[in-house]
Specification:
The complex is a heterodimer of chains A (about 550) and B (about 325). Chain A is an alpha/beta fold and about 550 residues long. Chain A has helices at about 125-135, 145-150, 175-195, 210-225, 240-250, 270-280, 310-320, 375-380, 385-395, 395-400, 415, 425-485, 490-530, 535-550; strands at about 25-30, 35-40, 50, 55, 60-65, 75, 80-90, 95-105, 160-165, 200-205, 230-235, 265-270, 290-295, 300-305, 325-330, 335, 350-355. Chain B is mainly alpha-helical. Chain B has a two-stranded antiparallel sheet with strand order 1-2. The chains are: A alpha/beta (about 550), B mainly alpha (about 325).
Chain lengths: ~550, ~325
């Protein structure tokens, strides 16, 4: 089958380093003494804990419920006792903590009563809710809740793309999954095709994985899936970027800020397809994934790892070498250095890349940019990275945005080829976070200004209302007085009424004075408030920044 | 330890890029030595030493890491281009002063490597040809000066120049056309002219062409600038020769004379001062070709590449800004 493939510009060809970790089949991991399952493992809202410390849980039991629709559930990876629900260091460079469920396995690994889903007879929304409650998120690394993507686009879905490109060096988890469990991937793809009402399914696999292509083709043939096809695509990083893969397979370029569904295409990782088959056919939620352990280890390989397993527990099986100085989650091009060795494996962990100074030496000192344009030739987003660099360096963020800073996917190709060894991506990350911070600050300032204006308005209104009430009261008093005075039948009531009107006059004077005092008091406090306004939101935004950086940015 | 990804880096460096450029200059230099003697080697040495000393001094003054920046070889590339652009029998101080001026004024006063808006070598050439027009116009004839004479001319004192030097082919042609009323065809038969351009010089140009091909093959430069420059210069010359064959030399002569080849592959392609976008490079090089041709045909200077480069350097920010390539997904206006 010869299919016309398209090209994306740029890209690089670093040594793939994939052979070593593909020799052995996927291996199991002995149960660790403790599992630390973060509640927040995906893009979107943090799930609410459904269990309490001391409670017994079963394998696959939901321990965190999706917070709204843009969220996903979390499950107990094994049976055991909940030791605590507390903040633990998360699998993120920042070293920040996140609310996690700590489970002590009881060794029995007892499943919940899992039933296959009658998915063909289920409504689309019902099936999506099942996916959400089964914790299915994109396993390619973006961990976006899958149920949100399993909706046909406005003009329908033409092509479902299954991403088996796996372009990052060292990572082979999708490769092994396709080789060993192609049948379930095809099954999952079929379910997704049904949910999306997609005309065809294209499984894109880099041509350095011929075994995976063969296995997938075999599974497709065995299944008799006539609208499904495994396509070998040229090996070139970042062919596995969703937009790059869509471009290669369909020729469609999805612009930044647009959804691929608007163009009739939807893209999922092979691991996600596998997970969906597990949910539907066995009723089993997502509690584990395949993780590559590679880099500075004796025996690189792939493991089926329960979420919450400490990374060092898994890496030890591969034989971590003595000079190791870091764990990187993900590949060498886009991965993140972990703040500790024992952070838990989460849904986003496709690879534990064990690093050392010898394997990933620090780049040579940064030199001046000579505008050679290597970066522009390598950029798969067709950006001019050196222009972004100049503007980022000058903190000229407006200009950086004009040069499409936010189209940058941080694939690292530019920094990889730069002869001046400039950490270009760091400059873009810096610019982006500065822009986000400023926007947050501006939003906060706007909010403060709005509050201030509302308060002024309220005070004005109260003053006005008081004065009106008072005027009405005095007018009524006067009217009563004149009415009493006119006939003047007796002195007694007249004296009494004049007393009343006097009282009213005094009260009015007092109210006026009070109103004046109030407005006088309000003015000086409001003025400094106005000055403080920008400062207060800065403090709040600084507090919010870390959590925002982990949750809001990917959206 | 590098903190952030990517953790992989391609084994490349500014030193390697500049080294490849120097390597690519060698065939042209070899032809130069073969036809015109060792004068050029002396000039190259003088310029290199002057450039490195001036660079070191200014790096120190600016508090920059000296050895690291010196070893990027960018000063050496500037020095070699100056030596090749200057007459190889000029006095020692001519090339030295030009080089020092290029490094200090045209490079470091603008902020050093990567910051200079003008090509430093061409700044040096422009300054010197304005300041010392006579000295900058005395070139060796092919095979006419032995090593001792050349050394004497470069390092010695008094210059009995008119008897032993000659004008460049471009100059000879211009003078012949304007003052002697000759035709192009008649002049090209004369002494100093070779197979298809200046005697000797044509092979130097072939050497630079070969070096340029090497740079293209090694992906140090892209095809845009050389193709646009040589293409437009060739077209203009062909047009001139077609319209008035008596007064305009044809495209082959134009392309293999003067600094056309050096300019196309080594000077205009300077990434720091040149245009960077693909379309921008085409415009930049085409503009340079047009200015070069106009100066050569109607101007007062022997060659136009230097001034064309500097004038187009001025336009680079505008050209780059107006020729930004469409970003992924933005190719069709939505």
């Amino acid at each position: 089958m010869l299919r016309k493939l398209f090209k994306f510009n740029g890209g690089v060809k670093p040594a793939t380093n994939k052979a070593d970790s593909t020799r052995d089949p996927i291996k199991p991991v002995p149960m660790p003494p403790q599992l630390v399952v973060p509640l927040h493992q995906h893009v979107g809202g943090t799930p609410h804990p459904l269990v309490a410390a001391g409670e017994q849980v079963l394998k696959g039991q939901r321990i965190g419920a999706a917070d709204g629709n843009v969220s996903s559930a979390v499950h107990a990876p094994t049976s055991g006792r909940v030791l605590a629900i507390e903040h633990r260091v998360m699998a993120h460079t920042s070293g920040l903590t996140t609310l996690s469920v700590v489970i002590e396995p009881d060794g029995e690994d007892r499943w919940i009563d899992a039933q296959p889903l009658p998915w063909r007879s289920m409504g689309a929304d019902e099936l999506r809710d099942e996916m959400r409650d089964a914790g299915v998120v994109g396993l390619g690394g973006a961990v976006f809740p899958s149920h949100l993507k399993l909706k046909p686009g406005k003009s329908g879905t033409d092509t479902l793309v299954i991403n088996g490109a796996e372009c990052e060096p060292f990572i082979t988890c999708d490769d092994l999954l396709m080789r060993e469990r192609a049948k379930q991937i095809v099954r999952g793809a079929e379910i997704m095709q049904h949910m999306l009402q997609a005309r065809r399914v294209l499984i894109g696999i880099e041509d350095n994985k011929p075994e995976a292509v063969a296995a997938m083709n075999q599974a497709i043939a065995a299944r008799g899936a006539s609208t499904m096809e495994a396509v070998a695509i040229p090996t070139r990083y970042p062919a596995g970027g969703a937009k790059q893969l869509i471009r290669v397979l369909t020729g469609i370029e999805v612009p930044h800020g647009h959804r691929s569904t608007d163009y009739g295409v939807q893209c999922f990782n092979t691991g996600t397809a596998y997970a969906i088959a597990d949910v539907v056919d066995r009723g089993r939620p997502l509690i584990s994934r395949i993780v590559t352990v590679a880099g500075n280890v004796e025996r690189p390989g792939n493991y089926e790892v329960l979420f919450g397993t400490p990374m060092d527990h898994v890496a030890a099986l591969a034989g971590v070498k003595a000079d190791t100085d870091r764990f990187i989650m993900g590949g060498p091009m886009m991965g993140f250095r972990m703040p500790a060795y024992d952070v838990p494996v989460v849904k986003a962990t496709n690879c534990i890349l064990v690093g050392s100074e010898a394997l990933f030496p620090a780049p040579a000192p940064e030199m001046a940019c000579i505008r050679c344009g290597e970066c522009a030739r390598a950029c798969p987003a067709d950006l001019q990275p050196f222009e972004l660099y100049w503007h980022s360096r000058a903190k000229n963020f407006g200009k950086a945005q004009e040069y499409h800073l936010f189209d940058c996917i941080e694939c690292g190709c530019c920094a990889y080829v730069c002869p001046s060894h400039i950490p270009l991506v760091d400059y873009y990350r810096f610019s982006k976070s500065e822009i986000w911070a400023r926007e947050r600050q501006k939003d906060a300032a706007d909010l403060a200004r709005e509050r201030f204006e509302l308060r002024n308005e309220r005070i004005e209104r109260e003053k006005r209302e008081k004065a009106e009430k008072l005027a009405a009261k005095t007018a009524a008093g006067r009217a009563a007085a004149t009415a009493d005075n006119a006939p003047a039948p007796s002195a007694e009531p007249a004296a009494a009424s004049s007393d009343d009107s006097k009282k009213a006059l005094i009260a009015a004077a007092m109210a006026r004075a009070k109103a004046q005092r109030e407005s006088a008091a309000a003015q000086p406090t409001l003025a400094p408030n106005n000055n403080i306004a920008p400062a207060t939101p800065t403090a709040t935004s600084a507090e919010e920044a870390p959590s925002a950086s982990s949750t809001e940015k990917p959206l | 330890m590098s903190l952030n990804s990517p953790y992989l880096r391609k084994p490349t460096s500014v030193t390697r890029v500049m080294g490849e450029v120097l390597l690519a200059l060698l065939p042209g230099i070899a032809a130069y030595v073969w036809f015109f003697g060792i004068g050029i080697l002396v000039q190259l040495a003088l310029a290199t030493v002057a450039a490195l000393l001036a660079e070191a001094a200014f790096l120190m003054l600016r508090g920059r890491p000296v050895t690291r920046s010196l070893s990027d070889l960018s000063a050496v590339v500037t020095a070699w281009l100056i030596a090749l652009a200057f007459p190889s029998i000029g006095p020692w101080w001519l090339v030295t002063a030009g080089t020092i001026f290029a490094i200090i004024v045209a490079k470091h006063l603008y902020g050093g490597l990567g910051q200079n808006p003008f090509n430093p070598a061409m700044v040096a050439y422009a300054i010197m040809i304005v300041a010392f027009p006579a000295l900058m116009s005395q070139w060796p004839g092919a095979g006419r000066l032995d090593a001792a004479t050349q050394l004497d001319l470069i390092l010695g004192g008094a210059r009995k120049i008119d008897a032993i030097t000659s004008a460049t082919p471009l100059d000879a042609l211009r003078t012949g056309l304007r003052t002697e009323g000759n035709t192009v065809a008649a002049l090209l038969q004369g002494e100093g002219f070779g197979l298809f351009a200046g005697h000797g010089w044509e092979w130097v140009a072939v050497g630079f062409l070969a070096g340029g091909a090497y740079l293209l093959a090694r992906r140090i430069i892209t095809w845009h600038i050389p193709v646009a420059f040589l293409g437009v210069l060739g077209l203009l010359s062909a047009g001139g020769a077609w319209a008035s064959p008596l007064n305009f030399p044809g495209p082959v002569f134009s392309l293999f004379s003067g600094a056309a080849m050096l300019g196309a592959f080594f000077i205009l392609t300077d990434p720091v001062s040149g245009a960077t976008t693909p379309r921008g490079k085409l415009i930049y090089a085409a503009g340079a070709a047009l200015i070069t041709w106009i100066i050569r045909q109607f101007g007062a200077f022997p060659d136009g590449v230097a001034f064309a480069t500097l004038l187009m350097n001025l336009c680079v920010p505008l050209i780059d800004m107006k020729t930004q390539p469409p970003v992924f997904g933005h190719k069709t206006k939505d």
